[in-house]
Amino acid sequence: TYRRINELVLRTLEPPRKTYYLVLLFLLGCVGIGATSWAYQITTGMGVSGLNNPVGWGVYITNFVFWVGIAHSGTLISAILYLFRAEWRTSIYRSAEAMTVIAVLTAGLFPLIHLGRVWLAYWLFPYPNQRFLWPNFTSPLIWDVLAVGTYLTVSSMFFFIGLLPDIASARDAARGFRKKLYTVLSLGWQGSHKLWHHYGSAYLFFAALATPLVISVHSVVSWDFAMSIMPGWHSTIFAPYFVAGAIHSGLAMVITLLIPLRKIFRVEELITIRNLEAMAKTIILTGLIVGYAYATEFFVAWYSNNEYEYEIFRWRTYGSYAIEYWIMVIFNSVIPLLFFFKKMRTNLITLMIICIMINIGMWFERYVIIVTSLAHDFLSYSWGLYRPSIIEFGITLGAFGWFLLLFFIFAKLLPSVAVTEMKEALPAPKKRGENV
Known about the structure:
71% of the residues lie in helices and 0% in strands. By secondary structure, the protein is mainly alpha-helical.
């Protein structure tokens, strides 16, 4: 019923228990480790990282591509499936949208971290100046700033517009400081017919606008690599390959977040096994696409008769990064096939374990793509190896802590399930005397 939906969602906004604060404290500790590591790198120099010549891109760019990919499933679930009117998305898309915004904010940190001299980051932005100098628009860093900035703007507006009716519901039930906060955020929402009409039009517009961003933003990120002449990078398959991988990793991250969320906030009636199972079925599709892309890369390298291209893929398989490569292949393409079995995709424990393995595999995919091509290019005298330093691990831990910290704050501060669309999905109430 409408009343039950209100009760379940608004209950998630009640004052938290001590356990919640303990989790926040732990995540703040992780963020503190990352911030301390970054501060040490700034004061000491980039030499404390594992970056070297020839491997000038490492964990930082790996993390950047990984978090941009995580952000894309939110748009898939909220915008694309909204346009196709997929009903199973209604109870999960709000958390996916929040994950999108938070993941983009996390990804945006890594170009700054990778710069080293972060105080010169303003050089990346196109702005008028006295010397009539503009940023180098042929630099991948500039492409990333423009793509991620655009994606963050559109996804944030789409997320906030969808929240308006639910914030108004929380405002009417809240007291004290929360009521004042929700009053400001609801922008005077009163639920009139005119407001609902404009809300529906705006939401549809942003859904249509956000949909092509799934393809365009990660295509731009893939061009950071594909526009070079490095073996293993210079390929036309990179744009669809990166987009499929982004959706694959993002869906796995959504499930990883939703399983604990539904248990902690006791919203099992809203986020059901059916919702999680539908996402698991989608992961089968994206996993098959990713596996096909892996096979296609080898075929293209062989068919091109380019010895440098073929050698880099052979070296990935049997060389110094073979362990990372096979983790990538098995976790991303083989393990998801277990979801063909209904018991696997409806058991929360196996569902959680497989999705965590996919996230690990997708991180290693970005690591293998970036590092192996740089470490094994055309000239053998410039070959080298790269291993991350403890500083890079510390910053990576801080990024995961930052992401989870913001998501936990969102889940307690704002409705994590869309009240409005959950009510729309309910069958119309029967008239008195009508057979049920």
